[in-house]
Amino acid sequence: MLTSKPPIRPDDTTLYFDMLEQAADGVVIINQFNHVVFFNTAAEQLWGCSSADVIGKNVNCLVPLEQRPQHDGYINHNRNTGVNRIVGTSREVVFTRTNGDYVAAEMSISTAIIGPDKQRYYMAFLKGVTEESHRRKILDLQNRVFHELSGEASEQDIADMLCAEAEQLVPNSVAALLQVNSEQTLEILSGEGLSRRKIAMLMRITLNETDVVAMSLAPEEARSIVWNTESGNGYESEFLDCWASAITNGAGELIGIFVLYSRNRDKITNWPQKIVRGCVPSCAAIIERGKTRQQLSRLDRYDALTGLLNRNAVTTILRDMTLQPTSNPFALLVLDVDLFQDINNLMGYDKGDALLQTMAQRLTAQCRSNFITGRLGGDDFVVIIPNGDHEIASAFADSLTAAMREPVVINNQELIISLSIGISLYPDDGLEIENILNRAEMAMLKPKRRPAKASDLWEALLMTM
Fold first, then answer.
1. What is the spatial distance between Cα 434 and Cα 61, in angstroms, rounded to a whole number?
2. Whether 268 contacts 101, CB under 8 Å
3. 96, 123, 121: which is closest to 40 by C-alpha?
4. Is this model's pTM higher than 0.90 or not?
5. How many CA atoms lie within 13 A of 328 on its CB side?
6. Distance of alpha carbon 179 from its chain centroid, rounded?
7. Residue-wise over 159-186: b if at least 16 C-beta within 10 A, else e?
8. Does residue 375 contact residue 308 with C-beta atoms inside 8 Å?
9. Could you tell me if 120 and 111 are in contact, meaning their C-beta atoms sit under 8 angstroms apart?
10. Cβ 65 vs Cβ 94: under 8 Å
11. DSSP assignments along 407-460, one per residue
12. Interatomic CA distance for residues 37 and 30, integer angstroms
């Protein structure tokens, strides 16, 4: 009777290693010294290096530079305590390829006691998920930005958060959010990683119409605006590349640029540009929210017709001036236009508004830079002269009266207007704000000895015909 021999089996270790070598996911195995003993083809493709460059080296050569000093400690803690914080779990890791590009991967780690010496080995499986990972992270970032925009955080803080997150998505990068102002120059809303020299270069940029049109047609043209190798300036470039996109509002107007500067020597993917593009809606929302808040603040502080401070703003300033520990004296002038109500009645309120605007312009032109001007309401205006006394205030009132005598063209007619002006002094005429204002208003009304007549206005008009 013939007996068959058992089939010859290949060595188990060789079999397992052959299977792992052909695995679609990256596989890395380390020994008791944290040295890499296995690095398959998929891992080579993830890191962009050969197994010969890795085998026998400490596994920390595969992790980001900033994590290397602590990496052995994490593994040894598990060896010594058996407390598993990452073994048996799956998490996302980001590392840099040998050419400077970056990769995101889902990593799961297992461990086993192997060999006659009962040494603990660790095996990591890594699946590249860069594209899916960044799509998810961009969505998460957009959600965070819009959540912050609904709260009390400042635009500066939100922009800083967005830039910091973008820098995490692209290692060795510096993000900046630039706002285009009314003069078509750039303001840096966020860019903590930029050097002073780079900031100065960006702030010197003035966009022309060709630049604006180019970026409206192709947002990525923003790169040509913010990228400068600086070779022509005699300086070595601090960055090696950049990605950028123009930012527009709902009306299609250029309002900003988002840029990622890179220190990576090479790049093999276009994901940084996709990340920039994904951040653009959030950037637009941040800039628009800032502009809206500025407009609301201006409406709250400034008179819509004349552009001067309104009564509430003037009152707030006066309160601040009087509450200072060492309050300095000041002079306060209240003035109005004689016969103004007749102008409204006889010529129309639009002509009255035009007169008030002209008066505000002349008033501003006569004031020094440290004077505070405002409109209290109607045709009543106020001027605050810091450190002013009665002599200074009277001289200013005389010069203002003379300036206002220049004819004003209303409804194709020249009108010569006159002012009534009252003066009060702090602290001589009172310490309370309302008292100071009331004293000036009473002084203003005192010279008006007779009621204004419409005939006076028509007489003034006829004299100029």
1. 73
2. yes
3. 123
4. no
5. 8
6. 7
7. bbbbbebbbebbbbbbbbbbbbeeeeeb
8. yes
9. yes
10. no
11. -EEETTEEE---EEEEEEEETTT-SSHHHHHHHHHHHHHTT--S---HHHHHHH
12. 5
Contacts of 353 (CB under 8 A, 6+ apart): 305
- What integer best gives the mean pLDDT of the chain? 85
Residues linked to residue 331 through DSSP beta bridges, in sequence order: 385, 425
**Angle between helices 349-366 and 390-404 in degrees, nearest 10:** 130
Which amino acid makes up residue 336?
D
Report helix, strand or coil for 373: strand
CA distances from 94 to 37, 62, 63, 321 (A): 22, 10, 8, 56
With CA atoms as reference, report the closest residue to 222 among 199, 201, 245: 245
CA distance 55 to 44: 11
| pLDDT tens sequence across 5-16 | 344 344 555 677
Stretch 117-125: mean pLDDT: 89
Q: What is the pLDDT of residues 54-90, one digit of tens each?
A: 999 999 999 887 788 898 888 888 888 877 677 877 8
CB burial of residue 236 (10 Å; 0-12, 13-18, 19+): exposed
Residue 462's pLDDT band (boundaries 50, 70, 90)?
very low
**Of 372, 177, 197, 211, which Cα lies nearest the Cα of 287?**
177
- Rounded CA separation 145/158 (Å): 7
Residue 83, CA atoms < 13 Å, CB-side half-sphere: 5
Whole-number CA gyration radius for the chain: 37
What's the sign of the alpha-carbon dihedral 16, 21, 25, 30?
positive
Whether the Cβ atoms of residue 98 and residue 46 lie closer than 8 Å to each other: no
CB atoms under 10 Å from CB of 33, counted, come to 11
Please give the single-letter amino acid code of residue 132: E
Is 260 strand, coil or helix? strand
Please say whether the beta carbons of 400 and 419 come within 8 A: yes
Q: Which residue has the tokens 């010294």?
A: 33
Task: Write out the two tokens for 360.
Answer: 């505000």
Alpha-carbon span 299 to 287, nearest angstrom: 18
CB 60 within 8 A of CB 70: no
> How far apart, in whole angstroms, are the C-alpha atoms of residue 286 and residue 141?
13
Give the DSSP H/E element, type plus range, for residue 235.
Answer: none
pLDDT by residue (tens digit) across 409-447? 877 778 888 899 999 999 998 888 888 999 999 999 876
Determine the Cα–Cα distance for residues 194 and 176; give it in Å rounded to an integer: 8
Six-digit token string for 248: 């527009």
Determine the distance from the C-alpha atom of residue 126 to the mean position of all C-alpha atoms in its chain, rounded to a whole number: 37
- Let me know: does 109 contact 94? Beta carbons within 8 Å: no
